[in-house]
């Protein structure tokens, strides 16, 4: 049973759908009102081992978002100019008939001219890519390379460890040293932070490595404020000291790693003095960190994706991922590196996505990170875009180009959404989608070890439909008759995971009754305590032959930022400040920005700037400033603060453009250049100048 009856009030087991490592178990209280189910409360499930009864501030407001007066509840057709956001209500049949006719006409020329654009607005496997992939595979539409978030770090882990795995979230309670490396856990990984607090009470030392004194950095014992994009150099500095001092688990290295001698040769060049210069920190900080990393055991590094959004992001993650093998920290369940647990979950891709519908075709691939460029230059051109679970006009880099692409009069755009986002404003049709309370799903988390089930708590509002149902109906209009297009959401959920490895025990009925199901892994899971790296060699690959075969550096290296003050001096003369735009605590990427209570807490778009940098530009507290480079500009209020280290400015993100005074956000200035591994965007590799516009 997913719901328990108690008078007129029931409790439904649900799962948070958002793109966050915590993937919480939710209990939704539902009341019957005149024959309709109305959700009246959402809470964290106290029995779930990582949620432990707590939801973040954002998802605590899930009802405010679900019942928001501006929800799109009917299909809409554009009547204004693209981007203007003027629509009229149409029926589902009118909308879907017209969309099918347009897609058929384009597909008759070349189906690759149709491009899906989606990301993790929901992380559910059912409302994510199940029916959608089937639809696009049958059509023969372009593939989308979903690189916008985690591709650089993900590929780096796979090259080094063979998979994406690490210590369990709960195990951080037993760590003695926790390094928050490029992650503001209080904002983006609250439940792991709670386990770290438990460790702290038991005497653990907490260190943050971050250019910004984030909420997390200020609560750690130590904060190392390096320059953005220099983490690879710091990791090599640590290796240098570990090797110089002989602080090495020689037995582990001998048995379970590949390429130590060559790695050591490279690390030899990264003296603490040199690293200090590259990173903008002191040599003593490098020495001390290495000392702690060897002497305080077990040591766990929590790195999230913050450090990989730069030119050398892949190599930086690779370098950091080498550290626990050198110092032997993988031997303990509370040691190692955690970037993602997603490699422990085996999706049944064949059954979810039905690649056989491609019938031998291999469509071209469009990289979501370069959509602005591709809307202008792809060959064959992009004639139609179907956007779901994403808000590219706000979140994709080099936004001027993205918005220009979306404004093309000859582009046919359909957006499945809850709200009229910056992207929906450019749509020819906006189709109303259900939220997590209104549909069924199963979520594959990336921060813990539990499959998460979501039961529908309420009926769809207005005429909203689940993404699956929208693609089902569209498939019918297109004349697609394969039985997989008729499968129900429950049937899809039941086949989401492959019966192998840690998901061998997956059972949808068990999961949905309880709300979750633990992976089939030992309670004290230490994935690499005895090697078992699923790399080609079976070892932790400092040296990767696979990378060498792709023409890439087989060893990690320090790859400097494209736009660093040291690495590109000519550019830095014109644009001397490094801009980073990491997640704001009260938003989830661009989701929740239109929820008033959360936006009120966040205030207005703000630039944090160091007092020295402010003074040098005649900027004072409360001024409005313009941030600019050759790609564009945007305006915000200023906060003069030492939270931003000198040389770095911080604009917490991702604001809806249309809710900012100037209709712009940080992605006006971010670049379309890609990372060294994973073809991912380089949001935090971005030089700018700042000037005062008014006080
Ligand atoms: N509240 C909230 N939670 C979120 C999100 C959100 O928008 N809001 N987004 C979700 C998503 S999609 C993701 S991918 C994750 C992101 O999760 P994280 O990547 O962990 O993001 P943050 O927690 O902001 O931490 C990034 C930190 O990296 C720092 N940073 C920036 N550049 C560098 C660098 O070059 N080196 C180092 N060492 N640090 C750097 C930033 O100052 C910031 O404090 O969070 C998820 N959770
Ligand atoms: N400057 C800058 N830019 C960034 C980042 C940064 O740190 N700085 N972070 C990057 C990262 S890590 C990421 S992951 C991306 C995130 O980019 P996106 O994946 O686009 O995430 P959101 O901005 O949250 O937009 C998700 C949209 O999906 C919609 N949605 C949610 N659930 C459903 C559903 O069930 N059906 C349908 N049809 N729609 C749904 C929501 O209403 C929302 O508008 O942004 C990237 N952009
Ligand atoms: Mo992300």
Commentary on this structure:
The protein is α/β, with parallel strands linked by helices. It has four domains: 64 residues, Phosphorylase Kinase, domain 1, CATH 3.30.200; 245 residues, Rossmann fold, CATH 3.40.50; 208 residues, 3-Layer(aba) Sandwich (Dimethylsulfoxide Reductase, domain 2); 126 residues, Barwin-like endoglucanases. 31% of the residues lie in helices and 19% in strands. The protein contains 25 helices and 28 strands. Strands 6-5-18-17-16-7 form a six-stranded mixed sheet, covered by helices on one side. A six-stranded mixed sheet has the order 24-26-25-28-23-27. It has a five-stranded parallel sheet with strand order 11-10-9-13-14. Helix 5 runs parallel beside helix 14 and helix 9 crosses helix 11. It is globular, with a radius of gyration of 25 Å. The mean pLDDT is 97. It binds ligand MGD (2 copies) and molybdenum atom (MO). One ligand MGD binds next to helix 6.
